[in-house]
Amino acid sequence: MTKALTKAPRPASHGVGIRAIGGHVPSRVVTNADLEKSLETTDAWISEHIGITTRRWSGPDERTSDLGAAALLDACARAGVDPDSIDLLICGTFTPDHMLPAAAVAIARKLGLSGVPGFDVNSGGCPGGTFALDVGAKYLMSGQYRRIAVVLADTTTKTLDPEDRTVGVIFGDAAACYLLEPCAPGTGMTPALLRSDPSAYETAFIKREERTWSTDGSGKLSGFGNNFMHMHGRSVRNFALDTMPNFVLELLEHHAMTVDDIDLIIFHQANYHLIHLLMEKIGLPADRTLTNVERLGNTSGAGVPLVLREAVDSGRVKPGDTVVLASFGAGMSHGGTVIKWTAEDDFLAPVA
Q1: Considering only CA atoms, which of 159, 244, 173 is closest in space to residue 204?
Q2: Where are the beta strands (DSSP E) in the chain?
Q3: What confidence score (pLDDT) does residue 123 get?
Q4: Looking at residues 144-157, what average pLDDT do you find?
Q5: Dihedral of CA 344/310/79/192: which sign?
Q6: Among residues 339, 299, 346, which one has the least CA distance to residue 67?
Q7: How confident is the model over 69-98, as a mean pLDDT?
Q8: What pTM did the predictor assign?
Q9: Active site residues
């Protein structure tokens, strides 16, 4: 069924609330012991330096849109709404099924959504948990849309060189979906603070080059052909420790807040130990954050919303709590937003 024309924009007299968060991870579990068989690494080294024990890898025929569609359906089920009620579909990804059309359109196609506008946001993968979310929030604030799905989905492991241990031990695949709806003024999300550092352009990027197998010299391909993930881990770590603590403090100052006002802060799930070092640097105890990187690996832009989903499910986040989301990644792009968690009765009238 084709959707009716979207209503004309109206003045923004509401906030932006996260009505539900959906998630989906592939069924294949890859342990450190599994990686010991194919890479020159050990469980002890991975645990000590990265803090990951397991991660999820997509199957050969699982695409980014498959993960994204499942996450969107989960978000709608949690909110008790029909996917047909979505006015706008945004997908944050750097691994679309094809270079074009957008992964958002592929997701809509798989769910049978007709007439729903969809587009992608490529903010460098990992920063998408705040960048794509802020794009969705701004569209909702326009008054033109009443229910927006912001999907974060990547099949990062399909960009890996099977012989490259520097990235092979870190990443997993996953998808998450923020379902955004208008809420009462003074609740929900605040405008994000977004930055990029072009001087670090090649710190983490997809490198297009010919590669060969070390065994016989034959040509090697990733799941995306001659495109391979490349990352200088120490530079990413140094950037995070040098930049993110002051960035979080600047974000809080912008909203006339201090770290004592934070009930929960969720960082990009890059490295278990790195996250706890960041907590020490900003002066917060470890119990003010949650992680899933130790179980799921670095899941790119989906990491932040998946942790937030777990926090909501476990009761760690309650209405009125102050939640900070902070992400960073390729292009050394980094973003943060402050959320006053929305109560059920703070959401405005549902879509008719």
Answers
A1: 159
A2: 15-24, 28-31, 54-57, 88-92, 118-121, 148-154, 174-183, 188-189, 193-195, 204-208, 211-212, 219-220, 227-231, 264-267, 322-329, 333-340
A3: 96
A4: 97
A5: positive
A6: 299
A7: 98
A8: 0.94
A9: 126, 268, 298
